[in-house]
Write a structure and sequence with these properties.
By secondary structure, the chain is of the alpha/beta class. Helix content is 44%, strand content 18%. Helix 7 links the parallel strand 6 and strand 7. The longest helix is centred in the C-terminal third of the chain and has 21 residues.
Length: 321
């Protein structure tokens, strides 16, 4: 009888948490990100925050904590109260690449966090200076083989998605490339436009404005299909360069021990935000693909991508700075 009563009380508590727009939850929600204001992750975070504020009937703010390849933002969330009011919105790198890049990482994605939901997926695109005569990625590969010196290709940092996309591209195409790491995407893009380096792989949302403005030329999409904003740009696979698919997803995590009912509430709110306008259309217009899903789906993605990128990082003997 006591066991039955205990189960009933627990069930009623769960219902109480989920009842109404915000249930029993109060206080402001913080979405912590590892990037400064103005970039693609910040844009997604602010769109999501606006929608979640209405869905949860709580104030939702974005907390920018850049630095240490995501470790600063991760630690801030991992050490916060597990009440679902402090969340981590991260790109794939900090979640599934950093564990293989750093021997003494200060957080553990499995131990310190609970998945809430995938938020968006971003395809990578290879861009070059508009003055480059290459009309596609295959012609850029041919260029790289014509000179004794390796062709310099920028990345946003050692072990970043642009870096690993470049490594896959070199392996798949046989291109003679030199990796040139930068501290972030912005200076890398600037040097491509300034013709200091030959090219760069990057998220379409972060590059689409430069492409539309004629400051960068896209040569190939590192994804299974073409992108709706760049319908005339063929995939690398279409160009005979296979196995370079690189999707830089952004996902939402909560601190470990956050109650399952709160995770369920947050997941439902994220799904509604990303399925409805104006939020969905704003993300699509930026080049991102809204991809809400279950917490279990995100957990499986973290596991599979950790294995995939971890193998590449180990095979290439890449070490984080």
């Amino acid at each position: 009888m006591k066991k039955m009563l205990g189960s009933l009380v627990a069930g009623l508590a769960c219902v109480a948490w989920l009842a109404g727009p915000a249930g029993a939850q109060s206080g402001a929600v913080k979405i912590v990100i590892a990037f400064p204001p103005g970039g693609p992750v910040d844009f997604v975070a602010r769109v999501l925050a606006e929608g979640l504020a209405k869905e949860l009937d709580q104030t939702v703010v974005v907390d920018n904590r850049p630095g240490a390849n995501g470790a600063i933002s991760a630690q801030a969330v991992a050490k916060s109260a597990p009440d679902g009011n402090t969340l981590w919105l991260t790109s794939a790198g900090a979640a599934v690449m950093n564990p293989s890049l750093y021997e003494n990482l200060t957080y553990d994605i499995q131990r310190d966090f609970i998945p809430v939901s995938l938020v968006v997926n971003n395809s990578e695109v290879l861009v070059v200076n508009p003055g480059n005569p290459a009309r596609n990625a295959a012609e850029l590969v041919a260029q790289s083989k014509q000179k004794a010196d390796a062709m310099p290709i920028a990345s946003s940092g050692i072990g970043s998605m642009p870096h690993l996309a470049m490594e896959l591209f070199a392996d798949a195409s046989g291109a003679n490339l030199l990796h040139v790491p930068y501290k972030g995407a912005a200076p890398a893009i600037t040097d491509v436009m300034g013709n200091q380096v030959a090219g760069f792989f990057g998220d379409i949302p972060g590059l689409i404005g430069f492409i539309r403005g004629g400051k960068l030329k896209p040569l190939g999409i590192a994804a299974p299909g073409r992108h709706r904003l760049l319908p005339d740009v063929p995939t690398l696979d279409e160009q005979g360069i296979h196995g370079v698919e690189s999707n830089n997803w952004y996902a939402l995590f909560a601190p470990a021990k956050t109650p399952p009912a709160r995770i369920e509430q947050l997941n439902g709110a994220v799904r509604r935000v990303l399925s409805n306008d104006p939020y969905r259309s704003r993300l699509i217009d930026s080049g991102a693909d809204p991809m809400p899903g279950s917490a279990e789906l995100l957990a499986a993605l973290v596991k599979s991508d950790s294995g995939r990128w971890g193998r590449i990082i180990r095979d290439k003997k890449i070490k984080g700075e």
